[in-house]
Every structure is written in structure tokens, then in C-alpha cells.
Amino acid sequence: MSVQLETAPDALLAQRAKDGDERAFAVLVRRHSPFLIAFATRYLGGSSDADDVVQEALVTAWRQLDELREPARVRSWLATSVARRATDVLRTRARRDVQPLPDEEGPATSPQPDAVAEGRAATRALGDVLAALPEDQREVWLLREMAELSYDEIAARLEVSPATVRGRLARARGAVLAAMAEWR
Asked: What's the CA gap between 74 and 80, in Å, rounded?
């Protein structure tokens, strides 16, 4: 693989990938997979499903590259796809009726069933709220709250000003807080 391709900016790689260049997409995958796996792991709470979620998101991304409107924001676009898949995993987990029984009884340190059910319901509600946010707000919220990026890092990734990031984040947080308050 050419050194030029390895050092090319995301926007160029994404555009070439949109044009069918598999090597350019492979560079994007290598470049962003560590972040996406860490992001999915945090989103899923340390789950072993993180690798699968990222793999599914990348396969889908390859198929849907023509939907990428801003090639320079490919990392955010991929993170949003990972977040959607992770939300689906969380919803699937919450729907499971059968929980495995422990092999042996241990001390009563595990959470009570009502607390577990409430936690799952809250996770589902948060996933629904995030899915309903406008994409620009959801993107900023996920990058700040889940990926723990600074305002400046988010601004650089999204190619907007830190003030824009703060505004979008404030609106997203307000919507999340209002929706979660109604949920309670």
C-alpha cells in the first residue's frame, strides 16, 4: 500500500472509498477502528459485543458510503453508525426474558431484579431519546458524553466552532434531561 494513501486526509480517503476504492476504505478502517471499538465498548458498558457492533457498522458503512454527505466527517459518521448498532444491541438485551441462573448462590451483592429492570428501561429510554435527537446534536452528545472528547476536539472533528459545539450540546443535554425527567 502506498505511503501516500496511509497519510491521506480522511476526506480524500472517504471520497475515494465512495468511488469504490477498497484500499482507501481499508485505511479508514485501520485508522478509526481503535476509536470505534473503544466508543462501542463504553456505549455498551464494557460488553464483548463491541467488536461485533463495530464490524457490522463498518460493513454497513461500506455499503452505504454514497449516503456520506461530508467526507471530512467520516469518523463522526462511523461513530453514529456504531451508536445505532449499539443501541440495537442494548434494546435486544433488554427484551430478553430469560436470564441465566448462577451456578451457585453467592452473597446478596447482585442488584435486585427491580433495579435491573429499571436500569434496562432507562437505557432503552435513553437510546430512544438519542435516536430522536437531530443528527448534529446526537453526534455532539455522543462524542462528548460517550467518547469524552473535549469541546475543541469535537469542534475540530466536526469542523465547526467550539461555540457551535457548546450550543448543540446544550440543546442535546436539555432534550435528554427533559425526556428522561418525563420518563421517571
From this structure: 10
